[in-house]
Amino acid sequence: MNESPLPVNAYGRSKLAGEKQVERLASRHSVSIIRSGTVYGVNPAARFDTFVNRFLLDAALGRSLNVNGSGAQIRPIISVDTLAASIVQNITTTPESPLMHAVEENIAVNDVVRVLKKTEPQTNVIYINQQHQLPNLQLTPMVPARSKADPWQARLASDLLNLRLPRPSAKGQDKPAPINSED
């Protein structure tokens, strides 16, 4: 396999150790390693601990978006639908390479903030430790980006509109049910 990563924390080291274990099977089995970017998108098993989905949920609930650092840091992203299709394709066809970067684009954290603020203009943004220049994490996209008719920005805005809860009216009617949160 190529493109040797340089993990900087225990999570990254565990992922690399897992890849090495899979590589050991390559002499006896057909193996693939899929390195995905940050997965975003509303789905039945959505994770809201990744920055895109967390921002999406916070904006839908009318909460502030908490950005760590300046927001200029670059992160690889892929929609859950595109990742699922890539995995199916990898299983049902012979991959060109045993290593695939499941990434549609590399974007700045602030790009996500801009899309959500455009859709929900009243969204407040709080920068935490904005003087820190966090490192960029980029992967060479090996998955075709969505068509220009359905870019990540449109998908994210659509997800926000689908998650949006009813806002209280002036008379206090239509209040959403309270949501338990650890915040």
List keywords for this structure.
183 residues, alpha/beta, UDP-galactose 4-epimerase, domain 1, 3-stranded mixed β-sheet, 5 helices, 7 strands, 33% helix, disordered C terminus
Poorly predicted runs of 5 or more residues: 172-183
Question: SSE order in H/E notation?
Answer: HEEHEEHEEHEH
The H-level CATH homologous superfamily, spelled out, is UDP-galactose 4-epimerase, domain 1
Distance between the termini: 41 Å
Q: What's the CATH first level?
A: Alpha Beta
What strand line-up does the widest sheet have?
2-4-6
> What's the story with the biggest beta sheet?
3 strands, mixed
Number of helices: 5
User: Which assembly state applies to the chains in this document?
Assistant: single chain
Strand count: 7
Describe the structure.
The structure is a single chain. The chain is of the alpha/beta class. The protein has helices at 10-24, 51-60, 80-92, 109-119, 152-163, and strands spanning 33-36, 38-40, 65-68, 74-79, 99-102, 105-108, 125-128. The protein has a single domain, classed as UDP-galactose 4-epimerase, domain 1 (Alpha-Beta Complex), CATH 3.90.25. Helix content is 33%, strand content 16%. It has a three-stranded mixed beta sheet. Strands 1-5 form a two-stranded parallel ribbon. α2 (51-60) packs parallel to α4, α2 (51-60) crosses α5 (152-163) and α4 packs across α5 (152-163).
